[in-house]
TrEMBL record:
Domain Nitrite/sulphite reductase 4Fe-4S per the UniProt entry, residue ranges: 119-271, 415-555
Keyword Iron-sulfur on entry: yes
Species the sequence originates in: Ideonella alba
Annotated Nitrite/Sulfite reductase ferredoxin-like domain residues: 53-111, 352-401
Protein name per its UniProtKB record: Nitrite/sulfite reductase
Gene3D superfamilies assigned: 3.90.480.20, Sulfite Reductase Hemoprotein, domain 1, Sulfite Reductase Hemoprotein,Domain 2
């Protein structure tokens, strides 16, 4: 993991002190709400439906156990005893009083954490594959580049007030586990025929009201020049994007409208920075700097390759529950004799992505005992132990069970991605958590879940798509209709992983459902799959093959609170 330098540490602590001064002046009436708003947003503080919400940055998802323990302590001492892990690999608190905000920022700074640029119209937290550095299919470890991008983008003087929020994701593996085509900029680290490292660059992706898949703008940018190239992209966006309409201000709208003209403008800006701008070439990354950062991401000293070939039956018949957990929650590793273990944050009685303070402490203990003190936050809102010896898997399973982390449902219907929705978010049109809870309860039978196989179910409480509903094999979107909660259902979406096919938004199957109808509609889709699937055919493939007409017929048949033939509308 990257270890903060003295400069990094001073920077974060000075920022915390600056925020304390801003907050003090605001609470004293010296700094009006309108002036304070931009300052709190760029430090991760929102004012939500019931209370302030803090979003803590977890750069590219890597957490040290000491950091997680501090997050647990903050949840216990300042919030209501829990936090929420997000699809952007961050952590959110929902109940911290604003007058205690500066104390929290000081506590975070003590363990090299902050909320800088987790909100506001700036470059947000850089995300990557939770298996970065350990995946067998990885071509280049993206984490050193993600760290360099973090340092470049943090408080970038030109990009502090962009037209809208801006998100970057990076992967270095053959399998895209970072959903890079759904980002404002998506980066794939690769090697060319000569073995040189560079980046394939995609631009203009995003979810929200208008889902757009990013377009390839550059097939290969040498790694040394990637900051210059990104500078050109963001500078062009900052110059030409609309600022008069928040719904049309994202880069996806600009790229869609301008097409090749946008690409040409970026390439012209790239050449200008390199050859005309004073000091432009100073953005070229020196080899020594990459080597310095890369040293932080070497295999931990305590990891010692061992003979592969883990056999759960070595000492007799293995517990079937353990075998099911091995199948779903344990991933292959590039280091012989090691595995990556996902700690599921999806179980009955707990909102997807939520972890109590006690659970955070338990996960930190697991990391110390079995994973070199390191954890990852996954895109799917779970936690991951990246350095688990195969010999320790049984012990990890027992400990995970005790802490409530061992639900063997990764990739299955109840491994739900969901935003906090209307229970917390001031922007939400509908609640996500009760819908997720009802679906989890309805599909509690693990045998049934495993028979159904991989199904990505994603829930968003509004068009901002924080629950990534567009990418779900089943997507659920909360909409407002006459002041009531309604839910639109889509099928066939993909985040770009091989098993789900090329990145694509799901297709809406008909008018929205009342809240009490949603789970019945999901069960109707599942029943269609049971009846119509070919041998070995995955759920998402069956849905796409059948098309929306039979799916709408099946879900319309279970309506009981709404008319079976409602007029179509933009939101319902």
């Amino acid at each position: 993991m990257y270890a903060y330098t003295a400069f990094d540490r001073q920077f974060v602590r000075q920022r915390a002190a600056q925020f304390r001064d801003q907050l003090t002046r605001h609470l004293a009436g010296e700094l009006p709400d309108d002036d304070f708003r931009a300052l709190r947003l760029q430090n991760g503080w929102y004012v939500q439906r019931h209370a302030p919400m803090l979003r803590v940055a977890v750069p590219y998802g890597e957490l040290a156990s000491r950091q997680l323990r501090t997050l647990a302590a903050i949840a216990r001492e300042f919030d209501r005893g829990f936090g929420h892990f997000t699809t952007r690999q961050n952590l959110q608190y929902n109940w911290i009083p604003l007058d205690r905000a500066a104390d929290v920022m000081d506590r975070l700074a003590e363990v090299d954490m902050h909320g800088i640029q987790t909100s506001g119209n700036c470059i947000r937290n850089i995300t990557t594959d939770a298996l970065a550095g350990i995946a067998p299919d990885e071509v280049v470890d993206p984490r050193p580049y993600a760290e360099i991008l973090r340092q470049w983008s943090t408080l970038h003087p030109e990009f502090a007030f962009l037209p809208r929020k801006f998100k970057i994701a990076i992967t270095g593996a053959a399998e895209d586990r970072a959903a890079i085509l759904w980002h404002d900029i998506g980066l794939q680290v690769l090697k060319n025929a000569e073995g040189e490292v560079g980046f394939k660059v995609f631009v203009g992706g995003g979810m929200g009201r208008t889902p757009v898949i990013a377009s390839e703008i550059a097939a290969f940018v040498p790694w040394q020049q990637i900051l210059v190239y990104l500078e050109a992209v963001v500078r062009t966006y900052n110059r030409f994007a609309r600022r008069d309409n928040a719904y049309k201000a994202r880069i996806k709208i600009l790229v869609k409208a301008e097409g090749q003209r946008f690409f040409d403008a970026v390439h012209a800006e790239f050449e200008k920075i390199l050859n005309v701008d004073a000091g432009g070439r100073e953005h070229i990354i020196p080899v020594a700097e990459l080597e310095r950062v890369s040293r932080h991401f070497e295999v931990p000293a305590g990891v010692r390759p061992a003979a592969p070939g883990f056999n759960p039956h070595r000492t007799g018949p293995a517990d079937p529950a353990f075998l099911r957990w091995l199948e779903r929650n344990v991933s292959a590793h590039r280091v012989p004799g090691y595995r990556a273990v996902t700690l599921s944050l999806k179980r009955a009685g707990q909102a997807p992505g939520d972890a109590t303070a006690d659970q955070m402490d338990a996960a930190a203990t697991l990391a110390d005992r079995y994973s070199q003190g390191e954890l990852r936050v996954t895109h799917e809102q779970n936690l991951l132990l990246p350095w688990v010896r195969e010999a320790d898997l049984l012990a990890v399973w027992h400990a995970a069970k005790d802490a409530g982390f061992a639900t063997p449902n990764l990739g299955l219907l109840t491994d739900i991605i969901a935003c906090p929705g209307g229970d917390f978010c001031a922007l939400a049109n509908a609640r996500s958590i009760p819908v997720a809870a009802e679906i989890t309860e309805r599909f509690a039978d693990l045998d049934e879940l495993h028979d159904l196989g991989d199904i990505d179910l994603h829930i968003s409480g509004c068009m901002n798509s924080c629950g990534h509903h567009h990418t779900g094999h089943i997507g659920i979107l909360g909409v407002d209709k006459d002041g009531k909660e309604w839910y639109q259902v889509s099928v066939g979406g993909s985040d770009g992983r091989v098993a789900s096919g090329a990145a694509t938004p799901g297709k809406v199957i008909g008018p929205a459902f009342a809240a009490e109808e949603v789970t019945d509609a999901i069960e109707a889709l599942v029943q269609v799959y049971r009846t119509e699937r070919a041998a070995g055919e995955a759920f998402v493939d069956t849905m796409r093959r059948l098309g929306t007409a039979p799916l709408r017929a099946a879900t319309d048949a279970v309506r009981h609170a709404t008319a079976q033939h409602q007029p179509e509308s933009a939101e319902a």
